[in-house]
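A further point concerns the way the authors explain their paired sequence and structure data. Nothing conveys this as quickly as seeing an actual entry. An entry of this sort, consisting of the sequence and the corresponding backbone structure tokens, reads as follows:
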Amino acid sequence: MKSLIYSILIFLVSVNLHLNAQDFKSYDKDGVSLMYPSDWEVVDIEKKKEENPNNPMLRSILFEIVADKETNETKTVEAMRIDMEGKNASLSDVENFFDKLFKNSQGKVQILKKGDGKINGYEYKSMTLRTEVDEAQLLGVQRMLLDGKYAYVISVNTPLAEFANYKTTVNQILDSFKIK
């Protein structure tokens, strides 16, 4: 009887691992890399910058990767690099900047949770955010890292209703970010 229970338990764990397993690809650009689900697509960010030359936030974007380019309720990964040379900023200063930015968003971005940690040799600050974009509710995690001259901001967003299903994927993407 015990062996039957153990067999069922092992079977359920292996099915769960198989269902959560996902193939990943690597993306490298401008001295950074990260892993993302292989069925997602890299956005032509240079084209986006050309189409929106007056958008200051686009200038800092290194790359954007999306699960579905056709919908507003897409799952996305975005990485920004912000030049911090001469600003003598700490990681807490970077976090405070985004904290103020989101608080001034007139309720479109809500900070649900803050955290910190260390990954791949870098300390980071993180925020779990609830965002409203074109009436779509998104939940995401944003990590901020500081590497001397640059602050890096990596954001992963999913539709609110799907976040629980993608939490493992979100963490894998965020944990894979590396500065070379």
